[in-house]
Amino acid sequence: MIKAVIFDFDGLIVDTESVWFEAYKEVLQRYEVELTLQKFSEVVGTSDEILFDFINTNLKEPIEKELIEQMAKELVDEKLLEPALRESVEDYLISAKNTGLKIALASSSSREWVESFLKKLNIYEYFSVIKTKDDVKKVKPDPELYLKAIEEIGVQASEAVAFEDSLNGLIAARKAGLHCVIVPNQVTSHLEFENHSLRLSSMAEKSLEDVIKHLTNK
Q: What rounded mean pLDDT belongs to the chain?
């Protein structure tokens, strides 16, 4: 029986991943470095170490990581002045609340980043538990974020379903023993997802009630 839903944030609730990709791509083009979608998708849902290893390897001259981050962040801030929820995210939150499911969030980003968007989009109050990189030693694909989330909301792993858009998130959720529904975005839709419970093009494809019926009947 499903008792809880746990949402990723970046790329799932708001498609920040596509915005970050465009920002880094634009910044790196100034230094004659071509960032591909395939390379960027490796860092989606986890830390940015892989991305900066790639950048350092391909730069003709060393540039401080902080400078590239700052330039990309400025572009992202401009592009996300008016963030939008991905399709039917709020429908899922309303449905979960109305049916008495516990609602949590598990993100590899910082608490400040995540909560600022949740509050701006007026959905912060839906979440009884929020776990971010500030709460763990290792982010996804390590399962620690999900393990801490289910511990705090008081359910067994088999009683929770994670909603993810990335391979790193899927790996983390499955390692933690959760069901995992994949809802890719523009950056991750080309990836080969395996060992998931269900894949949706968007949350508009199936209602939360139908998703849970599907998981229960598997």
A: 94
Whether the model clears a pTM of 0.90, i.e. scores above it, the answer is: yes
| DSSP secondary structure of the chain | ---EEEE--BTTTB-HHHHHHHHHHHHHHTTT----HHHHHTTTTS-SHHHHHHHHHH-SS---HHHHHHHHHHHHHHHTSS--PPTTHHHHHHHHHHTT-EEEEE-SS-HHHHHHHHHHTT-GGG-SEEE-GGG-SS-TTSTHHHHHHHHHHT--GGGEEEEESSHHHHHHHHHTT-EEEE---TTTTTS---S-SEE-SSTTSS-HHHHHHHHHH-
Give CA separation, 123 vs 93, 114, 133, in Å: 8, 11, 20
Residues classed as catalytic:
8, 10
Ranges of the chain with pLDDT below 70: 45
DSSP string, 36-65: -HHHHHTTTTS-SHHHHHHHHHH-SS---H
